[in-house]
Each structure stands twice: as structure tokens, then as C-alpha cells.
Design goal:
By secondary structure, the chain is of the alpha+beta class. It folds into 2 domains: 60-207, Immunoglobulin-like (Sandwich); 216-365, Immunoglobulin-like (Sandwich). Helices cover 18% and strands 40% of the residues. The chain has 3 helices and 21 strands. It has helices at residues 2-60, 122-125, 310-313, and strands at residues 72-75, 78-79, 84-93, 102-111, 139-140, 150-157, 167-176, 178-188, 198-207, 216-217, 221-228, 244-245, 248-252, 257-259, 263-271, 283-293, 296-302, 306-308, 325-332, 339-349, 354-365. The strands form 4 sheets. Strands 10, 11, 12, 13, 15 and 19 form a 6-stranded antiparallel beta sheet that branches.
Length: 366
Amino acid sequence: MIHGFMKLRRFAAGAMLCACASAVAFAQKASKADQKADAAASQAQQQEYATVVRLADTAMAGQPAPSDFPVQFQNDFLRAQGGRVWVPITLTIDPAKLPSAAMTLYTRVAPRGMTAPPPPSPADKNDKGKNDKNKKNDKAAPPAGPTYPYEDIAVLDVKPTAPGQPIRIVRGLGVPSGSYDLYIVLHERAASGATAKATVLKQPLDVPNYGNGEFATSSVILAERVEQLPAPLPPDQQSEHPYAFGTSEIVVSPDHKFKKAQELIVLLQIYNPSFTADKKFSLEAAYTFYRQDTGGEKRFNSTEPQGLTPDSMGPGFDPSGNSAIQAGQAIPLQSFPEGTYRLEIKITDKLNAKVLTQNVNFTVTP
């Protein structure tokens, strides 16, 4: 019995060795297959990057660029850190006209009037590992090449929307003040051998200077709602959520259309007010609505003026720093007849009697 048991153990050990050898051989084959697949995916990715960069180069040179599906563009301006300006952009697309959910988005900001890419900088020439370091979250940097004030590539898998709702792609970019041309390429990641569709937009971008000390405001943002986040977003997600500030994220209305059952949420930031030696300031924001009829424009109503002082901003607010004074209103629209309106916002600096006026149009629907 003992002898037979020993033979059984030797047989089992031999079988285990054969199984292990087979597993190693299979793993080696699988590893080679994985490496081959990874190499093919990497090559396809580089070809995709080269394609969208080439399309932007074509548009920059003034040559005809594809416009296979319509894309509407909207942007805002807000002050950012380090003397830069934060520019959230919204792309609106009809789902029925988008060729695929698999898209690549390329954005490039170039100095106004530039018609050819600048030569690569020394840092770009030596930055061979740039793409590998940026593959997290399906997002990668463009291949090494010319240096622009801003440039980015994002791999998108566009999610379906509710019936009747457009597709909206939002992104944010930060640039110094100045006059630029913004190039946006949306390119379909089509199957091998298929003809990919693409649209290239060229938009003028006149970025205001909020760092010159002059009394100014951001863009007026009309929002559908403001959502609360469990925690501030990490920096690498800020571009994908350009209207997230701290633990709040603004859901904007790019088409400025609101139903009567909704609230009109108006938001803006105020920069560089006059203040006293002890950092006191006094501002007033007045909101007046004008209804646009066939016979012309008529005043509809207004809200109570909004006072903005250090007390309203909370303790520790410093108007001399990079802080922004937040202003805004939430206005119920039940009493607004259907139609188009102009909202006039007047910001008065009571310490020096300076007045800023901003206007924005919106539409009330059933």
C-alpha cells in the first residue's frame, strides 16, 4: 500500500509538472498576443493623433477643412490663478448627426493670424515619453511638436442622451489674456478601412485681461441648476468639468432656453473693485428684464438690487488678492410669458461711482 501510494504521488507530481509547463507555454503565447495587440493599439492611437493634428494644421493654413456634421460653439471667461483666464467651452451636437460615439477631440489655441505651426521647442524634441505618461482616464497629450499657448487631445466615448436632448461636450482651457484662434477638431475613430468623418471649427478667442487692476466682470453664466459635489475635483479632472468650483458644479444652459417651471440662475464674478485701506468695498448689482416684442423692447420687471460688501462675502475675504466677488440671482420664471428677454445687469462700485453693464438674452418656453 505504501509502495502504491508513492507511485501515485510520483504520477501526480509528473502531471503537475506537465500542467505547469503547458501553462507557461500558454502564458508566453498569450503574452506575445497581448504585446502584439498593444503595439497595434498604440500604432492606431498615434495615427489618430497625427490625423487630428494634420486637420488642425490644414485649417490653420487656410485650406478647406472637413465639416461633416454641425457643431455649435459657446464659451465663457473667468479669472484663473497665475494671471491666466479660464475658458470653459461647450460643443452642442445633434445626436442624429453625430457619426459615432467613438470620437477624438483635439483643441489648439494659436496666436491670432498664425498660419503655420511654430518649430518644435527643445523640450518637445526630447519629450519622448510624453504620451505614455498621459494615458490615464483615456486621455493623452498630443505628440511632441510645436508649442502652443494651449493644446490637448481627449479620447471620447460619447454617452447617449435623453430623447430630444442634444449632445453636449464641455471642456476647459487656461490661457493668458490676448487674441487667439481656437481650433477644434472632432474626428470619428472609425473601424479599420472605414472612412472617418470629422468636423473642424475655427473660433476667434479674445481673452480679456483681468490682471490689469481695472474694474471688470466675468462672462454672465445662465445655469439650469447647481449641483453639490462630495469633494473638490482633482486637478486632472478640471478640464472635463470646467464649471466645477470647489464642491459646486454649475450645469450651464448653452442655448439660454428655460421652461416656465424652471428657475433662471444668473451667476457672474466681479474683479478689482475699489477698496479702502482696511479692505472695505461696496458694490451693488441691479437686474432688469426687458421683453422683446414685435413692436420693440419693453421693460418687464426687475429684482431688488443686490448689495455686495465684505460682510456678504464672509470673513477673511481679501479684495486685493486673486479672489472674485460672487454675484447672482435665482429667478422663478412662472410669471414670465413665453418669449425672448434681455437681462441687463448693472454693477455699481459705490466708492468711485464706476458702473459696469452686462447684457444677456434668454428665452422662456412652455
